[in-house]
Specification:
four-stranded antiparallel β-sheet; Rossmann fold; 12 strands; alpha/beta; 32% helix; 259 residues
Length: 259
């Protein structure tokens, strides 16, 4: 885990009323990085910049030493997969929804999926435990199943980097653990590099190797969960008072709110 798969250098991007400023970040191949910070700090904006959904006003995002804006769209989609908060649902089946992840791999004048495309989609359905609902309409499965199907579609792209924007939002605690256990297992099996935005700091502590704390459109600090999740930093950035103890099983920081 020594090679930089992603380098962000002096990035500035955003919107009329908000901008990320002077973002510098190196991501090693095979890391699980959690992006945390208060609402409006720029977490989703950062993911959009990495996914080439927002053009920089200054700076660069390099994937394997190549500026992402110099890559063809299909080439980028074969390297980076994104799972957003809002999944557009329709009448297509779960299987067809996951097969959409194969489009970046279509050859010139290919209009239908190949045997390899179907095999890749079925593998992704199996890994995410959604094969059992593959024939169901995507609009009729549960929120947890939909999140897993979205990850399956991303895996069908066979990416090197997986971006997850609040993958546990609107899920009950059982589905939250199921989704993040899956992410951890994908990382272990495939050496997949993962960057995910998380609001729940306890989940970020347990599942991420490194945390990037954003505040006001800038990186406030980065480091291990033990480095970042301290009462002083949480109070400074979130304006909240917490007590932090070691989780007795994982020995990672566990946060307790003070009323």
């Amino acid at each position: 885990m020594s090679n930089n798969i992603l380098q962000i250098k002096g990035l500035q991007c955003g919107y009329k009323n908000f901008s990320l400023t002077d973002i510098n970040l190196n991501v090693n191949e095979g890391e699980i990085i959690g992006v945390i910070g208060p609402n409006g700090s720029g977490k989703t904006t950062l993911l959009k910049a990495i996914a080439r959904l927002l053009k920089p006003k200054a700076g660069q995002v390099l994937f394997n030493d190549t500026d992402i804006w110099h890559l063809a769209q299909k080439e980028l989609a074969r390297k980076i997969a994104v799972v957003t908060q809002n999944t557009s649902v329709s009448a297509i089946s779960v299987e067809d929804y996951v097969l959409l992840g194969r489009i970046p791999h279509y050859k010139k004048l290919q209009f239908f999926e190949s045997c390899h495309d179907i095999e890749a989609a079925h593998k992704a359905l199996g890994i995410t435990d959604t094969y059992k609902v593959k024939d169901n309409p995507i609009s009729e499965i549960s929120a947890g199943e939909l999140q897993l199907a979205s990850i399956a579609r991303a895996l069908a792209q066979e990416p090197q980097l997986l971006l997850l924007d609040e993958p546990t939002s609107h899920l009950d605690i059982g589905h939250q653990i199921q989704v993040l256990n899956l992410v951890k297992e994908l990382h272990r099996q495939m050496n997949l590099t993962v960057i995910m935005v998380l609001h729940d700091l306890n989940l970020a502590s347990q599942y991420c190797q490194r945390l990037v704390l954003l505040s006001g459109g800038r990186i406030h600090s980065e480091g291990s969960p033990s480095d970042i999740l301290t009462p002083q930093l949480i109070h400074q950035v979130y304006k909240a008072k917490v007590v932090i103890e070691d989780n007795p099983l994982t020995h990672k920081p566990a946060l307790f709110l003070l009323p």
